Amino acid sequence: MSNTFGNIFRLTTFGESHGQAVGGVIDGFPSGISIDEAFIRQELDRRRPGQSRITTNRKEPDVVEFFSGIFEGESTGCPIGFAVKNIDPHSKDYAAIRNIYRPSHADYTYTQKYGVRDYRGGGRSSARETVARVVGGALAKLALKELGISIVAYTSQVGSVSTNRDYKQYDFDKIEQNIVRCPDPEKAGEMIKLIEEVKAAGDTIGGVITCIIRGCPIGVGEPVFGKLHAALGAAMLSINAAKGFAYGAGFDDMDLPGSRQNDIFFNNRGRIDILTNHSGGIQGGISNGQDIYFRVAFKPVATILKEQATVDINGENITLEVYGRHDPCVLPRAVPIVEAMAAMTMLDYCLLNKTTHL
Description:
The chain has seven helices and 19 strands. By secondary structure, the protein is of the alpha+beta class.
């Protein structure tokens, strides 16, 4: 159950970081959607390792192979099976830690829960699993395009370096013009410099990704336990290293009274509109037709190239020093993953909306 995402649109993923492949099976995908494989390739390239000097230098081409559910360039409505082979795992880098619990990793919890763990890169707990999510998200984006819904995310904070303008003031075409994926060129330069300094010190750094969903119609989301923002939050917090989720104004304006936080309705040339969007496009768990926007906080990557105190499987205190290829900052490669999870959530909830509102 925990390997499957969604209600109507469902993605079940499989595979480990150093296994033969990672992949998935998608069920509930609408028929008749044109499958743009070049676009899917582009989305995978945004996530793949080795793409810049501030990411891991693991070399994975991340080529997806589809086995079913697509015929003559269109979805058939049948399950879509796919896989992405692991080409460059370097499993030997992890042999020395097979009996050691790495700080802030899933090593200890996986061992306690299952009695066994794949120590090679974290196995199933590795962020390598997100390859399948990006494939699912790319397909979901193609379906959402038919509904006029678009999704974009960007790095808005790395460490103490943060963008200081409203997302509406940025040109999103600039996101892919720098290796940290920030639409503010000046802040992007500062972020890259900080990541390079942290990497040189053998350490890691976290930050925040902002995501915006445009074109969502009014009425998507269900009351009480099916709230749209709750589904988006659950999707984001399922991503490796995600530590926090806030939609709309979030925690920013908690010092303001309701008179300054409320989104005031008004008649905009015969159409009901709101003066502000502190609610982040969702009220009562249901979309209100405005932009949906939220932020996701990511912790520093847990694997650092510095000595750390820990214990082995026998509970003995030891000093750990790890080697290998790791991201000094997860943010640049997490941007397409955030978009993918948002896309799958939105497609799933749009399909749910069709079944409950005839």
